[in-house]
Amino acid sequence: MPEYVFRYAAPYLDVANSKNSYVISKSGKRYLDFLAGWCVGNAGWNKKVITDSIRKFSGPTYVSPTYNYDGWEKLGEKLASVTGLDATCFRATGGTEAVELALKISKAYNRRKNFIAFKNAYHGQSFACMALVGLHENKFGPYPDNYLRINPLSMSNWDKLTESVVNNIKKKNVCAFISEPVICNLGVVVPPESFFQSVREACDKTDTVMIIDEVATGFGRTGEWFGFQNYEIKPDIITVAKGFSSGYAPIGAAVADNKIAESMRFDFSNYSTFGWQPLAVETSIANIHYMEKNKLVERSKRSGYYLMERLSEFSNPSGKGLCAGFWVKNINLKKKCRDEGLLLDAFLFRAVLFPALDVSKSEIDRAVDIISNNL
Prior knowledge:
The chain is α/β, with parallel strands linked by helices. It has helices at residues 36-39, 48-56, 70-83, 95-110, 127-133, 137-140, 158-170, 193-206, 258-261, 278-293, 296-311, 333-339, 361-374, and strands spanning 15-19, 22-25, 30-33, 87-92, 114-118, 147-150, 174-179, 209-213, 237-240, 252-257, 315-320, 323-327, 342-343, 345-347, 350-353.
């Protein structure tokens, strides 16, 4: 049988449906989903209130980026409200495009050359996003030399790492610093508050842009609406996607401080053909309203405390809210848990857990018990 859709690896699950915290295979087996599409399904799968808003939508099929649409203003106002930032929203279709936008906005603002990011972290699949972190350089490189990558091994000494980043920023040739507030792709690394505060101070003194990538950590994942709110800092730009619609529609955004956003006011500075397509806008508004009504951010924080309490029996647990990781020695943990009906990810000797924000205590117990039986 010919393969019509490219896959970089053999699929290990044929999905037929999903509901709440469960993914259902074609064979009818129910899997407790502690990945949520890697921080996508924050609201949970197939929530009737959200799917009803999709079915009932009667607005325009499409609006050209050169026109105006009231739904854009409504969603932009809502997004600015939950971020707490005095900011302008740039429309995108997903996380990679949002990060590309953040890089472009930063370049337009201060016209500098270099970017600082954590090596082997993740900010998207475009060429620039992969170059930021050195992803697959052996296949897609050589990358340009304007990316200063922080070695994750240096995280064993945060004071020294902080000093190194700050000293690079002080050279005044850095366009932007970018990081997730909780670094998911390195196994859920939680930097100390002093790190982000020191970087913020250095960026302020040198007019360097601070980008916090909230594609995975936004919309309640860390127990706050956005991960940066755990550190008492205000980024210049944040990027969002995934939980922005909880997977019910493809959508993303770069949310930039008004002063920095002004640098993009020139002809054709940005054009996103499908950025904030009207049905996706309606879906995201419904998703945010659902999260507010059901207090999912507060539930994420509360359930996160319980999850971390349960994970304390494992090696070196870390996390904030329902964004958690721990050390593993069993490289087959992912498959063994899947065989018992639990979906998680494990790599680099770390396992990561990203359940829906309304996950129940009993579901957390079941997940941890399955993990414990297979370590």
